[in-house]
Amino acid sequence: MRKIIVLALVGLAAQLVDGALGMGYGLTSTTLLLVAGVAPAAASASVHLAEVGTSLASGVAHWRFGNVDWQVVRRIALPGAVGAFLGATVLSALSTAVAAPWVAGILFALGLTLLVRFARPLPPPRPGRTRRRFLAPLGLVAGFVDATGGGGWGPVATPSLLVDGRLAPCRVIGSVDTAEVIVAAAASAGFLVGLGGAGFLGPTVLALLAGGLVAAPLAAWLVRLVPTQVLGVAVGGMVLLTNARVLAHAADLPAAAVAIGYVALGLAWLAATLLAVRAMRRAASAAMAQVVPLPTT
Question: What confidence score (pLDDT) does residue 73 get?
């Protein structure tokens, strides 16, 4: 019972991050399941099945708050589903010994991407529509990485759309979260083909789903209030540190090298947090400077 409660809290925290940031549910949940000793394919399969329900709830909530661009959802979701199905079948064919460092390596790279991306100022929105020839390849790659890494749809799609700069951050996050319903369903179908029904951990799926459903409406509301950069850096640092353990074990590194590596990652995390806070303060100061004071009489 205690384990189920812990998993539900993991699902709640992961969905709060994902709904407010446009990424993090799969990364956070899969990383913690791997640390608990769950096989990579089973962890990714269970997380994606739970994500079908949590993404649906999140998408509805984002739609109600006006955070969804349906044209972007249509153009990114179907290629993402194709990539996710292919990625799930690839991961299902790998042995646990091979898959564990592979998945940890993908998650580590995505965590580093988050750290670097959100330590810098976010670009302002640009006028115009996001191009179709950009969205389809992005969805395909993000879906494949998501299924093979147990998470990655948001960390690949959200920063890419933010860099493109044609949508406001809240609409980027809402659109990516809404499209994730189809991507997660396709990944679950791929795992069902590759692993069968036994590949899904029923109690884990239900616990993650329960926590995520509670958090989804709150996260869609918080997306306009939470400091996105600090949250992105926090998730990136957590993912880096937890997956560094798996990579160090796979490489059979000596204890001294592991300790030095953890210290370096911790310092990088701290530096990225400070840079993110400084970027937020500069953006706030620039916004204040643009405010024209009302004339006094």
Answer: 93
Q: Identify which has the larger pLDDT, 255 or 235.
A: 255
Structure token pair of residue 42: 């089973």
84, 187 in Cβ contact below 8 A?
yes
Mean pLDDT of 60-66: 87
- Residue 105 is predicted with a pLDDT of 83
Query: For residues 107 and 159, what is the distance between their CA atoms, to the nearest angstrom?
Result: 15
Q: Residue type for 182, please?
A: I
Distances, alpha carbon 51 to alpha carbons 29, 46, 182, 226, in Å: 10, 8, 10, 22
Q: Which of the residue ranges 135-149, 208-222, 248-262, 272-286 would you say has the lowest mean pLDDT?
A: 208-222
| Contact between 176 and 161 (Cβ < 8 Å) | yes
- Helices of type H across the chain: 2-21, 25-35, 40-64, 70-92, 96-118, 132-149, 153-164, 169-195, 202-222, 228-251, 255-289
Hey, what long-range contacts does 75-78 have (CB within 8 A, 24 or more apart)?
A: 75/130, 75/132, 75/135, 75/136, 75/139, 76/135, 76/136, 76/138, 76/139, 76/142, 76/157, 76/175, 76/176, 76/179, 77/139, 77/179, 77/181, 77/182, 77/183, 78/139, 78/182
Specify the residue for token string 């096989």: 39
pLDDT at 77: 94
Instruction: Look at residues 113, 205, 99 and name the one whose alpha carbon lies nearest to residue 152.
Output: 113
Quick one: DSSP state of residue 150? T
| Percent of the chain's residues with pLDDT above 90 | 16
Domain borders along the chain are: 2-284
Model pTM score: 0.73
**3-class SS at 124?**
coil
